[in-house]
Write a structure and sequence with these properties.
By secondary structure, the chain is an alpha+beta fold. It is built from 13 helices and twelve strands. It folds into three domains: 2-121, PAS domain (Beta-Lactamase); 124-198, Orthogonal Bundle (Helix Hairpins); 200-368, 2-Layer Sandwich (Heat Shock Protein 90). 49% of the residues lie in helices and 24% in strands. A five-stranded antiparallel β-sheet has the order 2-1-5-4-3, sandwiched between helices. The chain has helices at residues 2-8, 16-25, 44-49, 54-57, 62-66, 69-81, 123-159, 165-197, 207-224, 243-259, 306-311, 318-328, 354-367, and strands at residues 28-34, 39-42, 85-91, 97-108, 111-121, 203-206, 228-233, 238-241, 266-274, 277-284, 332-338, 342-350. Strand 1 and strand 2 (39-42) form a beta hairpin. Bound molecules: adenosine-5'-triphosphate and magnesium ion. Magnesium ion binds next to helix 10.
Amino acid sequence: MSKRLSEAEGAGNADRRAFNALMEACGTAVLAIDKNGVIAMANSNAAKFNETSASELVGKPLIRVTLSADIEQLVRSAIEGGEMRSRTVRFRGPEGRFLRVTARPLTNDGVHEGTLIVAQDVTTLRRLQIVRQDFVANVSHELRTPLASIRAMAETLQDGRGMEERISRSFLETIISEVDRLTRIANDLLTLSEAESRPSAKAGFDFSKLTESVITRFQGPAKRAGITIRANIEPEITVIAAQDQMEQVLVNLIDNAIKYNSIDGSVDVGLRGSPGSIHLTVSDTGVGIAQEHLPRIFERFYRVDRARSRQSGGTGLGLSIVKHIVEAHDGSITANSDFNRGSTFKIDLPTGSADIKERVDAANQNTV
Ligand SMILES: Nc1ncnc2c1ncn2[C@@H]1O[C@H](COP(=O)(O)OP(=O)(O)OP(=O)(O)O)[C@@H](O)[C@H]1O
Ligand SMILES: [Mg+2]
């Protein structure tokens, strides 16, 4: 049996210990059971899945260890079919993990000797699949709403002989504003997917100057909304980052701080450097975010007050874009808020080390 097992593990003549080390390094649990379903061999990952030691597992029936009808069923169908079978099963435990389990029957001259079982924890992958499904559902919902309203208005205009010009004009204005909204969603989705999938071109630049220029751009709209922007920017803080993406981070945070503020409110933008990092804070004296919403505001399309956000043209993608950009730069973002008093968003970003900066600068100059 042990000879057959080492062949099945793919070790061949190679060192079995090296094989085990490899299996452990890639997080794979390996178990072999005999023809009675009793564990004959287990590696340390199999033991970890079961929060015990490998020697504790050996000698126990598989079903008593896994308590999983799905795994039992998989093993039986592999034996009956005489071939390898795989499936994803939900594994016990409070967090509900998912395992991709493969069962391969072991035979010697056509006689069934046991089964090799290989399992991989695919919980993260599974969660990502769920996030993606939710995302697709959200996107279709977000697109359907403006599309339905455009269609209804267009149909009314089509049948609207004798309609007052004032009314038809207001319908057309709504159609244009809904089309603008769809364009914004499409642009934001593109930005988000770029931030997620494409490594951004990084170069050294003056973050202080960029922050000041974004603040200047917002002074007009802030004034019209009766809001004061105050800046406390340490000069000449340089970083290695994607400048266009950092500009988006600043724009999104300052835009939110103005948009979700109260009349006569204020926005404070602070920037300071410390060795190896920069720290940006954007605080406002606005509506705030209730504690139960705070953990979710970085999710795509999540809006605390849908009506308010929609009224101001929001798509609910701004903060998820910010988070992706910051994390793609190895930084972190946190949000604190007092409901009805205001919110503070903090970003810590590594500056990138000086020698890398010099090399990036030199490479940039060579490409001009
Ligand atoms: N400074 C803030 N104060 C209060 N609530 C905020 C603040 N920033 C964000 N929020 C809440 O978090 C939600 C998500 O923000 P996000 O920036 O992702 O979307 P949005 O502003 O609604 O739309 P977009 O930024 O795409 O135009 C907002 O709808 C709002 O409810
Ligand atoms: Mg926003």
